[in-house]
Specification:
By secondary structure, this protein is an alpha+beta fold. It folds into two domains: about 120 residues, Jelly Rolls (Sandwich); about 80 residues, Winged helix-like DNA-binding domain superfamily/Winged helix DNA-binding domain (Arc Repressor Mutant, subunit A). It has eight helices and twelve strands.
């Protein structure tokens, strides 16, 4: 029950639930554990659950016939997957698998729809989260279509810096994924990304130590995007 309570407490959309609705969610939630590399869904699988991460990390990606993986999304504690399935029939748009030891709560679609009928404010919260995700997807599509590799890299670094630690000369943060994975996300190769990163370093805009990143001149980086 502790894990079930934790998954309810971690997600803001459940914060407005009445005690009766909380009890309902408790009764329909089931705990699952996934080891690293274990698959939750594969492309085309029917998605019949709302899934909330308690701990760990999941990656949603697709792989083309040449074996190249495109990362669609990564989920961490408190995030959820399958919310679209609460409103319409849904198939997984990629392979969802664990990239760390992961615990989740699974809530069956029909049972969760009853919760939404009893607590429409939760439905509004879900729609808000879906709108934010759509906006992020549209931003990524626009970047892939309109920006070159350097500009895509700068845009992503500035986005990550929004939750970083301010320093006397800029912002410091830790990359949440590897540089190779970031290259895939940005639609380029690790070699190409490395060259662009070295150029930013040479220009005195960015320093890196492994996945630790220090942006030294936010204005100059923003100017790169403004001039795109």
């Amino acid at each position: 029950m502790l894990k079930i309570l934790t998954c309810i407490d971690r997600v803001p959309i459940f914060s407005t639930l009445s005690p009766a609705s909380v009890n309902k969610v408790h009764s329909i939630a089931h705990h699952r554990h996934y080891e690293v590399g274990e698959t939750v869904f594969t492309t085309g699988d029917a998605v019949d659950y709302l899934m909330v991460l308690i701990s760990g990390a999941l990656r949603l990606s697709r792989t083309n016939k040449n074996g190249r993986e495109q990362i669609i999304r990564e989920l961490g504690p408190g995030e959820f997957y399958g919310e679209l399935a609460l409103f319409a029939e849904l198939q997984a748009e990629g392979d969802l698998y664990a990239i760390a030891a992961t615990d989740v709560c699974m809530m069956e679609r029909k049972a969760m729809q009853e919760v939404l009928r009893d607590s429409p404010q939760v439905a509004w919260s879900l729609l808000g989260a879906m709108a934010n995700r759509l906006a992020e997807a549209e931003r990524l599509i626009a970047n892939l279509s309109l920006l070159d590799v350097t500009e895509r890299l700068v845009a992503e670094l500035l986005r990550l810096a929004e939750t970083g630690e301010a320093t006397a000369s800029g912002v410091r943060f830790t990359l949440p994924i590897t540089w190779a994975q970031l290259a895939t996300k940005l639609g380029t190769t690790p070699e190409s990304l490395s060259r662009r990163l070295k150029q930013l370093n040479h220009n005195g805009l960015v320093t890196t130590d492994g996945r630790h990143v220090h942006l030294l001149n936010l204005k100059a980086l923003q100017d790169i995007l403004d001039d795109a």
